[in-house]
Amino acid sequence: MTTHTAPAPADTRTRIVPLRPRPEAPRPEQPREPLLRDVVGGVLRRERLAQERTLKDVAEAARISVPYLSELERGRKEASSEVLAAAARALGLGLGDVLSLVQQELVAARSTTAPRGRTATAGRYGGLCLAA
Amino acid sequence: MTTHTAPAPADTRTRIVPLRPRPEAPRPEQPREPLLRDVVGGVLRRERLAQERTLKDVAEAARISVPYLSELERGRKEASSEVLAAAARALGLGLGDVLSLVQQELVAARSTTAPRGRTATAGRYGGLCLAA
DNA sequence: GCGCCGCTCTGCCCTCAGCAGAAGGGCGCC
DNA sequence: GGCGCCCTTCTGCTGAGGGCAGAGCGGCGC
């Protein structure tokens, strides 16, 4: 069963030209990236509090139940695309806004967790500066 | 370290200082923001193709089944936090990278869909320019 | 004390995430 | 020309978990 057939990389079937350098660090043990739903939940809660609104208020605006919104904010349930959009909307935000905030937190968390933390991350796609 | 006048930034649990003007356009109708899972799927597929890799390859790296990865890329199934992280990782990206790309697509889509489209969106949190 | 308000915990049901198996479709090989 | 391989997508199935109604708990005004 061993690699008798060889790596045989040259399956030249495809010739799409510009290959991006496939990341070949298989598992260099990047410890823990925070779980997305936690970060999203945190953002939602922070925004809600910043607006001084209650779970009930936002939940109704988003057409979801109060306990469920609570669970989302605490990162205990996974928000589907529709629910997330509704919740964001209820806070007067777009998906893009929420994602911005989430990203900021991810970056912040990473820099504290691994101060020299660099993945392929920012460098490549980095410069997205969306202005008004 | 207790700046006693200022709302100490020391902890995340900051006192919510300024109430943000609650968004009071309740919900007239903002017609269609693209569904998150579609955008995410598109990003995953594009990245995979850019690396010239197959579903099988990436699926194995992410420890998920091939058909399921296909569904994710096509936006037919919702990706949980863990699965999304695994898929991103399998492509050599972090969550932040994926979110960046997703956000870019959202912005792009919006500008085509609603050329004058402005929500509370970009203005407020706009300037996240993450550099190296 | 008592009731209200805001949040969280407890089950419950039914959708859907996630997968094994097999069916298209394209290209190389004999 | 046919055969077979590879990548992808479709078809059911099962168990996990999304989403909710209802009750429980601490705080504050009366």
TrEMBL record, chains A, B:
Biased composition (Basic and acidic residues): 21-33
Signal peptide residue numbers: none
Pfam families: HTH_3
Molecular function GO labels: DNA binding
Domain (HTH cro/C1-type) ranges: 44-98
Family annotation (CDD domains): HTH_XRE
InterPro entries listed in its UniProt record: Cro/C1-type_HTH, Lambda_DNA-bd_dom_sf
UniProt region (Disordered), positions on chain: 1-33
Protein name in UniProt: HTH cro/C1-type domain-containing protein
